[in-house]
Amino acid sequence: MNALDSQVAVVTGAGRGAGEAIARRLAALGAHVLLVARSADQLSQVRERIVKTGGTASVFPCDLTNASAVAEFGKAVAQNHKRCDILVNNAAVGMDGKLLHEVTPEEWDLMFDTNLRGSYLMIRALAPLMIGARSGHIINISSLAGRNPLPKGAAYAASKWGLNGLTYSVAEELREYNIRVSAVAPGSINTDFADHSGRGAASGKDPKRKLQPDDIASVVATLVTQPPQCFISEVLMRPTQKP
Questions:
Q1: pLDDT tens-digit profile of 117-170?
Q2: How far apart are CA 100 and CA 147, in angstroms?
Q3: For residue 217, which of 37, 119, 90 has the smallest C-alpha distance?
Q4: Which of these, 36, 60, 56, lies nearest to 47 by C-alpha position?
């Protein structure tokens, strides 16, 4: 018997990178994973890879910046699955390095709508299922940029500082319902997502020294398999060797 047998896990940003790795790891532990991202094609490919390794998953294309779409997703989960045991808010966008005064209002809004408001909307949609079951785990994938100054990345850092504040506060709100809420804050990850310098692959950092998507997935797996009487509220992740 697997650790997460019969559980339903929702992973946003599941079409690639850390999101895909997290989804595949949760499926390997026995959860039925609901894959959420904008691209149906990417999600379908991830689902195929999960099924080939003996897991189960469903595809749910959804724009997390659209409040109505997220609400409809929540209704679909309640109707079709009747439970949500794990929610991993992983979806995020970065930005090429810009001074804050060079960031347009449209870029700022996209950053916050995806990195912060999207997590709020997903919690709003799915927390009632967890409260009804008096059980669940919410994991917000933050960043070390949410704890440290990030020149030419102030908008991104601000969105992650906000996500941390949301995480710590919601954790206190939901503890009485036996729901655990955790933040995972990685440093540079070897994906096509821009790194913390805001320069992506052009930064010249050694990709082999960066955190790998599977590293993030391993931490998430550890969090959701903790004994029920405790939870890890925050994990800070750094590469052993600076890239």
A1: 999 999 999 999 999 999 999 999 999 999 988 999 999 999 999 999 999 999
A2: 18
A3: 90
A4: 56
Q: With CA atoms as reference, report the closest residue to 184 among 36, 35, 50, 18.
A: 18
Render pLDDT for 28-39 as a digit per residue (tens, 0 to 9): 999 999 999 999
Quote the mean pLDDT of the chain. 93
Distance CA(231)–CA(192), nearest Å, equals: 31
Residues 6+ apart with CB under 8 A from 121: 64, 67, 70, 71
Residue 169: per-residue pLDDT: 98
Q: Can you list the positions of beta strands (E) in the chain?
A: 8-12, 32-37, 56-61, 86-89, 136-141, 179-186, 234-237
CB 146 within 8 A of CB 164: yes
DSSP-derived 3-state class of residue 169? helix
Q: Tokens representing 70? A: 């997220």
Which positions are annotated as active-site residues? 156
Q: Is 41 strand, coil or helix?
A: helix
Task: State the residue for tokens 């990417």.
Answer: 42
